Amino acid sequence: MTLSSSAPAKGAPTASAFTGMLLMTGGMMILPAMDGTAKYLAHYVSPVQVSFIRFLLQGVFALAIALIMGRSFGSMMKEFDRGQMLRGLFLAIGSLFFFSAVKYMPLADAIAIFFVQPMILTMLSAVFLKEQVGVRRWSAVGIGLIGALIIIRPGSNAIGLYSLLPLIAATSFAIYLMLTRKLSGTASLLGTQFTTGFTGAFVLGPLVLVSTLFGFEPAAWTTPALELVPLFLLVGAISLVSHGLIVMAFERAPASVLAPLNYVEIVSATLIGFIVFGDVPEPIVWCGVALIAGGGIYIAHRERVTANREAGKQ
């Protein structure tokens, strides 16, 4: 199976596109719960190990559900193809770098920098998915990038080199979402989750093994305490549900329409960061977030205006 481009939705927002927007919102709202749990677990084991277990459990959960629903293991294996594996690879890279970021940074700050991702996704959608992106939306992308620079503050020690971690994660996740759109409809939901989970585990597993053998502590295996097991299970379950919602969303709406909805993540991320870790973002961080979110909201506004104009022509 090869990568096949999906045509972007045209005309007025359909019921399917609206459903896609709701699904994307749901997925983005619960993702910070996984990030917050991963941040807590990173105090006891390496971020690489957290990422490895997350993907392994995601694949196991998807396979278990498929078997319960009557599917065979062979039918699931048939959905392993290069396109889905490439998609899983970029998600694994993004997860590894983001889990590393939240280990060393406040959760809200890491997600604030990660917010450059919708802008990257918009650019990728225009270049690779051939979705129409006009001057106004490119301007919104530029505003978002300025916001990211305000948060990162190059040359300052406020966040430092750790700010590169969520930036790399954002780029990888944007590519993952673009591939999710390109591959929409080419595999079943459980097959996609199964492939993504085990691809991530196959990528990160050897890294954990080699690090353990050579005593490289930042990525070596640490046997977790028994009381941490439910939290690892929670990370795997949230990963399965949240990314399942995202996959379903991209089957129903274009990437450029869904990209701004990534910003709802800051709501639950800020709450979790404050309640669980006592993290309060600095005022300048909120200035950057306002610019980034403003760019995303403007993109959403332009989508609605364009859709209404197209509807009037019909």
In short:
The N terminus is likely disordered.
Features:
314 residues; disordered N terminus
Structural class designation = mainly alpha
Helix content: over 70%
Number of strands: 0
Largest sheet: none
Low-confidence stretches: 1-14
State Rg: 19 Å
Tally of alpha and pi helices: 13
Layout of SSEs?
Blueprint: H1 15-41, H2 47-68, H3 73-77, H4 82-104, H5 107-114, H6 117-128, H7 135-152, H8 164-182, H9 189-213, H10 229-250, H11 255-258, H12 265-277, H13 283-313
Helix pairs in contact: 1-4, 1-10, 1-12, 2-4, 2-9, 2-10, 4-8, 4-9, 5-8, 5-12, 6-7, 6-8, 7-13, 9-10
Task: Provide an overview of this structure.
Helix 2 crosses helix 4, helix 2 packs antiparallel against helix 9 and helix 6 runs parallel beside helix 8. The two termini are 36 Å apart. It contains 13 helices and no strands.
